[in-house]
Amino acid sequence: MELRSILRALARSWPAVVACVLLGAAAGWAATAMTTPVFQAQVQLFVSARSTGGGESGNDTAQLQQGSSFSLARVQSYAAIVTSRQVTAPVVNTLHLDATPEELAGRITAEAPLGTVLIDITVSDTDARRAAETADAVAVRFGDVVERLETPDGSDKSAVKLGVTQTAAVPTAPVSPRPGLNLAAGLLVGLLLGTGLALLREILDTTFKSANALAEFTGLPLLGSIPYEKPDDGRPLTSGTVGHSARAEAFRHLRTNLQFAQIDDRPRVVVVTSSLPGEGKTSTAAGLALSLAETGTSVCLVDADLRRPCVARSFGLVQDAGLTSVLIGQARTDEVMQQAAGRLAVLTSGPMPPNPTELLASERMGEILRELADRYELVIVDSAPLLPVADTVGLAPLAQGTILVVRAGKTPRDRVVAAAEALRTVGGRTLGTVYSMAPLTKRAGYGYGYGDPSAGQQLAAPPRPRAGAVKEEAR
Question: What CDD domains does the database record attribute to this sequence (predicted)?
Fold first, then answer.
């Protein structure tokens, strides 16, 4: 994974990364607070060979050299005796320690630096004064044990002598816990954990993070990228939401791209659908219709999502009569057609039927779409999602083109592939994709200072539907 991809993954998952870092810091603080302080006291011993004395100066020098070599050879072995039971058991009894000889041995370390005849003995304890007393007692007992071991049989004098060069001082500060180190370790572990989770999420996430990624993956034309905008206070779209917001400009780009798509065989009936619910297909269809009507194009928006219709509510229109009323012969299209946003024609869904799939795939539905295409320059059909139900699979072949809406960072790639394959299987003509609910960046405004969408201009009234109009524009 490239560094840029890693940084993007961290930026997208920064709340989780920050949470992990904070948890790591909390764990470091907790470890410090829950750890009993440990103090260390140290004594130092000097090992020397006893001189026999009484010789000439030359002999004394030779004896000193031999004694030094003897001490260097023995000192490493002496260090290993410090933790033996011969040393620890008497110390436990003398100081009345609440520990076994083996437990005391676990708190003692002895080190003989190479090239020296020094032995450093360190004792750890939870009580500072007790640590110093124990270290001094260990040093004394250790010296006795070594001198006894080095006393030849039949002699009362040891060959070596151990002297204390530095007695144990009462430590003033514990050696553990170390708050700074624990905090740093917690922060590092938290950062690594957060980074790992962010990268794992990035690897497992099969959604599209950019419009370009969608276009490259599907191989379909990218008609537009619609930024996400928080829902308003319930006002219908007729209150003037086109204006000059970044979202409105995105719909104008979508409108332009759609007008240039398939210029030799321009579609008159376009179905807007998605793979799954909640991807923004209805808002895309409504925004596209409003943008087209803004230019004076006669547009009819049809709500063909007969299971969860939303167009009527979006425009503040009546849903009691609409498409299903025309399909079952209870009304004609001109009787249930409603006007919105400067006489934008809207055919709502009407009463919800028990058999939407059969109605939308019927010959009567094809007749209605052809009738609307003759009366309007463009018919935008909002349909049900492709994968949960079969409604759009039967409707798509009746239209002249389909727009597939994909939600940014939500729609899995396999669902998009399945939706595109479903359209291809039934012979549907996919005009392209729309990347909806994209994150709104600073560049979305193009630096022109777009204002509040709610302060947009009212749409110019489009021309009235032309009865019996022919498809001049398609030619």
Answer: BY-kinase (cd05387)
- Residue 471 domain-assigned (yes or no): no
Q: What Rg do the C-alpha atoms of the chain give, in angstroms?
A: 43
Indicate if 15 and 89 belong to the same structural domain: no
- List the domain range (segments joined by +) for residue 29: 3-35+178-203
Measured between alpha carbons, how far is 278 from 194 in angstroms, rounded to an integer? Answer: 30
**CATH number of the structural domain spanning residue 145:** 3.30.70.1130
- Taking the C-alpha atoms of residue 286 and residue 436, their distance in angstroms, rounded to an integer, is 13
For 91-127, write each residue's pLDDT tens digit: 999 999 999 999 999 999 999 888 888 999 999 999 9
Sheet of strand 430-438, all strands in order from the earlier edge strand to the far edge: 222-227, 430-438, 401-407, 269-274, 378-382, 299-303, 344-347, 338-340
User: Beta strand pairing status for 269-274 and 378-382?
Assistant: parallel
Nearest to 109 by CA among 165, 43, 48, 56: 43
Nearest CA to 48 out of 148, 116, 145, 138 is that of 116
21 plus 103 within the same structural domain: no
pLDDT in tens, 345-379: 999 999 999 999 999 999 999 999 999 999 999 99
Tokens found for residue 144: 């006795």
Q: Which residue has the higher pLDDT, 286 or 58?
A: 286
Name the nearest CA neighbour of 436 among 288, 280, 215, 286.
Answer: 280
Of 195, 225, 232, nearest to 209 by C-alpha is 225
Which of 435, 446, 403 has the alpha carbon at shortest distance from 214? 435
